[in-house]
Amino acid sequence: MIVEVTSGVLATLNEEARKAAAEECCGLLLGRGARIEQAVPAANVAADRTVHFEIDPRSLLSAFKAARAGGPEVIGYYHSHPTGICVPSKTDKDHSTGDSRIWAIISESEVAFWRDNANGFVAQPFRVVG
Asked: What CATH number is given to the structural domain containing 28?
Protein backbone atom coordinates (compact mmCIF):
# COMPACT_ATOMS: atom_id res chain seq x y z
CA MET A 1 0.00 0.00 0.00
CA ILE A 2 1.29 3.46 -0.90
CA VAL A 3 1.15 6.02 1.89
CA GLU A 4 -0.27 9.38 0.85
CA VAL A 5 1.14 12.41 2.62
CA THR A 6 0.29 16.06 2.10
CA SER A 7 2.98 18.56 1.19
CA GLY A 8 2.03 20.48 4.34
CA VAL A 9 2.83 17.44 6.49
CA LEU A 10 6.24 17.06 4.86
CA ALA A 11 6.93 20.75 5.44
CA THR A 12 5.94 20.38 9.12
CA LEU A 13 8.16 17.33 9.58
CA ASN A 14 11.17 19.08 8.10
CA GLU A 15 10.52 22.27 10.08
CA GLU A 16 10.11 20.42 13.39
CA ALA A 17 13.36 18.50 12.79
CA ARG A 18 15.15 21.75 11.94
CA LYS A 19 13.82 23.51 15.06
CA ALA A 20 14.83 20.63 17.33
CA ALA A 21 18.34 20.77 15.82
CA ALA A 22 20.66 18.57 17.91
CA GLU A 23 17.74 16.87 19.68
CA GLU A 24 15.15 14.50 18.24
CA CYS A 25 11.75 15.96 17.51
CA CYS A 26 8.68 13.75 17.73
CA GLY A 27 4.95 13.75 17.26
CA LEU A 28 1.89 12.10 15.79
CA LEU A 29 0.71 11.43 12.24
CA LEU A 30 -3.05 11.85 11.83
CA GLY A 31 -5.42 11.25 8.96
CA ARG A 32 -7.71 8.65 7.44
CA GLY A 33 -6.84 5.27 5.96
CA ALA A 34 -3.42 5.51 4.32
CA ARG A 35 -3.54 9.32 3.96
CA ILE A 36 -1.52 11.38 6.42
CA GLU A 37 -3.13 14.80 6.67
CA GLN A 38 -1.60 16.22 9.86
CA ALA A 39 1.69 16.08 11.71
CA VAL A 40 1.09 17.10 15.32
CA PRO A 41 4.23 18.00 17.28
CA ALA A 42 4.57 16.58 20.79
CA ALA A 43 7.06 17.16 23.55
CA ASN A 44 9.98 14.75 23.57
CA VAL A 45 10.09 13.60 27.20
CA ALA A 46 13.06 11.22 26.80
CA ALA A 47 15.85 11.56 29.35
CA ASP A 48 18.44 12.14 26.59
CA ARG A 49 16.69 13.84 23.68
CA THR A 50 19.88 13.90 21.61
CA VAL A 51 19.70 10.14 20.97
CA HIS A 52 16.17 9.07 21.96
CA PHE A 53 12.58 10.16 21.67
CA GLU A 54 9.56 9.51 23.81
CA ILE A 55 6.27 11.11 22.83
CA ASP A 56 4.59 12.89 25.74
CA PRO A 57 1.93 10.40 26.95
CA ARG A 58 -0.61 13.21 27.32
CA SER A 59 -0.35 13.93 23.60
CA LEU A 60 -0.87 10.25 22.81
CA LEU A 61 -3.92 9.94 25.06
CA SER A 62 -5.44 13.11 23.68
CA ALA A 63 -5.02 11.98 20.07
CA PHE A 64 -6.48 8.52 20.71
CA LYS A 65 -9.45 9.99 22.62
CA ALA A 66 -10.11 12.43 19.78
CA ALA A 67 -9.98 9.57 17.25
CA ARG A 68 -12.49 7.54 19.26
CA ALA A 69 -14.77 10.58 19.27
CA GLY A 70 -14.71 10.76 15.46
CA GLY A 71 -11.57 12.82 14.92
CA PRO A 72 -8.69 11.88 12.66
CA GLU A 73 -7.11 8.47 13.13
CA VAL A 74 -3.68 8.07 14.69
CA ILE A 75 -1.94 6.64 11.64
CA GLY A 76 1.48 6.72 13.22
CA TYR A 77 4.33 8.64 14.74
CA TYR A 78 7.33 10.63 13.68
CA HIS A 79 10.76 11.47 14.99
CA SER A 80 14.04 12.77 13.68
CA HIS A 81 17.55 11.38 13.50
CA PRO A 82 19.47 14.68 13.69
CA THR A 83 22.89 13.14 13.00
CA GLY A 84 21.83 9.95 11.24
CA ILE A 85 19.97 8.53 8.32
CA CYS A 86 16.22 8.03 8.08
CA VAL A 87 16.12 4.29 8.71
CA PRO A 88 15.00 2.66 11.96
CA SER A 89 17.83 2.55 14.48
CA LYS A 90 18.52 -0.31 16.87
CA THR A 91 16.65 1.66 19.54
CA ASP A 92 13.69 2.14 17.18
CA LYS A 93 13.66 -1.60 16.49
CA ASP A 94 13.84 -2.37 20.21
CA HIS A 95 10.73 -0.19 20.76
CA SER A 96 8.75 -1.63 17.86
CA THR A 97 5.28 -2.79 18.90
CA GLY A 98 4.17 -4.45 15.67
CA ASP A 99 0.99 -2.34 15.68
CA SER A 100 1.14 -1.72 11.89
CA ARG A 101 1.29 2.04 12.36
CA ILE A 102 3.48 4.23 10.18
CA TRP A 103 6.69 5.78 11.47
CA ALA A 104 8.13 8.77 9.66
CA ILE A 105 11.82 9.26 10.28
CA ILE A 106 13.39 12.58 9.32
CA SER A 107 17.10 13.04 8.61
CA GLU A 108 18.91 16.19 7.60
CA SER A 109 18.04 15.67 3.94
CA GLU A 110 14.97 13.45 3.64
CA VAL A 111 11.90 11.83 5.16
CA ALA A 112 11.19 8.10 4.97
CA PHE A 113 8.10 6.17 6.01
CA TRP A 114 8.14 2.74 7.66
CA ARG A 115 5.39 0.34 8.74
CA ASP A 116 5.88 -1.19 12.19
CA ASN A 117 4.95 -4.83 11.50
CA ALA A 118 5.26 -7.92 13.67
CA ASN A 119 8.37 -8.84 11.65
CA GLY A 120 10.03 -5.44 12.08
CA PHE A 121 9.94 -2.25 10.07
CA VAL A 122 9.10 -2.33 6.37
CA ALA A 123 9.87 0.62 4.09
CA GLN A 124 6.70 2.22 2.75
CA PRO A 125 6.51 3.93 -0.63
CA PHE A 126 4.74 7.26 -0.47
CA ARG A 127 3.37 9.93 -2.75
CA VAL A 128 2.80 13.57 -2.03
CA VAL A 129 -0.80 14.73 -2.40
CA GLY A 130 -2.39 18.14 -1.96
From this structure: 3.40.140.10
Longest dimension (CA), the chain: 38
Q: What is the reported pTM?
A: 0.95
Mean pLDDT in each 10-residue stretch from start to end of the chain (130 residues)? 95 96 96 96 97 96 97 97 92 90 94 93 95
pLDDT per residue as tens digits for the range 64-101 = 999 999 999 999 999 999 988 999 999 999 888 899 99
Cα 114 to Cα 130: distance, rounded to the nearest angstrom: 21
Determine the distance from the C-alpha atom of residue 104 to the mean position of all C-alpha atoms in its chain, rounded to a whole number.
Answer: 4
Alpha carbon distances (Å) from 10 to 38, 71, 76, 94, 122: 9, 21, 14, 26, 20
Residue 94 backbone class (left: φ over 0; alpha: ψ -120 to 50; beta: rest): alpha
Q: How many domains does the chain have?
A: 1
- Cα 19 to Cα 88: distance, rounded to the nearest angstrom: 21
Dist. CA 47–CA 30, nearest whole Å: 26
